[in-house]
Amino acid sequence: CPWLQHIDEKTMRLHHLKHHQAYTDKLNGALARLRANPETKALAKRGIDWLLEHVQELPEAERGPVRNAGGGYVNHDLWWQCLSPRGGEAVEPREGSPMHGALTAAFGSVNDFKTKLNLASLELFGSGWAWLVASSTTGDLQVEATANQDSPLMSGQVPLFGIDLWEHAYYLKHGPSRKDYLNDFWKVLNWPFVERRYTDLIDRISPSGAAGKAEL
């Protein structure tokens, strides 16, 4: 299996069945408490993305659980989709594509973008995530790092993909070497999925936006 060269099976099983499941269970508990209160019942129907975007509007007792467990759920839900099912055959955006054009416009080149995201990942102290995010209003790209399970949704950004920098994501195979983990991550990134997220966002912002971005 090409996956095992880069991220081992034991790590993936623990990551999904233990860590992600724990965030899911705690989020469900927070949503159950919101539903049980007539004053907050409507909030539980908003969806987790909305709750993270408006986390400061939640009752104080639920802000932490939604921020931490909700962020952990959403971040990991995106994480799994950002890993290529073909593992080890990551294909970068082709020249002339909207994604390639946007990365080049924002960072100079795809390689320059990867260098910047690697640097943000290595400089993040402790646990967290490094992201490629897009503005929800313009589609402009930038690199962002967040601590713990904070989601870019909380700052009004749309996450296109993230790199999980918690040690549970890599320590069994890569030990303390976050750099080696990053090198392997790029080999399994599901670029077609990331590109679809980007073009879908541009289409929502402006029906002609995707075509314009392709010409960058």
In words, what does this structure look like?
The protein is mainly alpha-helical and 216 residues long. Helix content is 54%, strand content 11%. It contains ten helices and three strands. The chain has helices spanning 9-36, 41-44, 48-53, 60-81, 98-107, 110-123, 171-174, 178-185, 191-205, 209-214, and strands at 128-135, 141-147, 157-164. The chain has a three-stranded antiparallel β-sheet with strand order 2-1-3. Strand 1 (128-135) and strand 2 (141-147) form a beta hairpin. The radius of gyration is 18 Å and the shape is globular. Residues 209-216 have low confidence and may be disordered.
- Strands, total number: 3
Strand order of the largest sheet: 2-1-3
Query: Roughly what percent helix?
Result: 40-55%
Strand residue percentage: 5-15%
Q: Strand count, sense and closure of the main sheet?
A: 3 strands, antiparallel
Based on CA inertia axes, which overall geometry fits? Answer: globular
The whole-angstrom Rg is: 18 Å
Topology pattern, helix = H, strand = E: HHHHHHEEEHHHH
End-to-end Cα distance, whole Å, is 38 Å
On the 0 to 100 scale, the average pLDDT is 90
Total number of helices: 10
Structural class, from secondary structure content?
mainly alpha
| Residue windows where pLDDT falls under 50 for at least 5 positions | 209-216
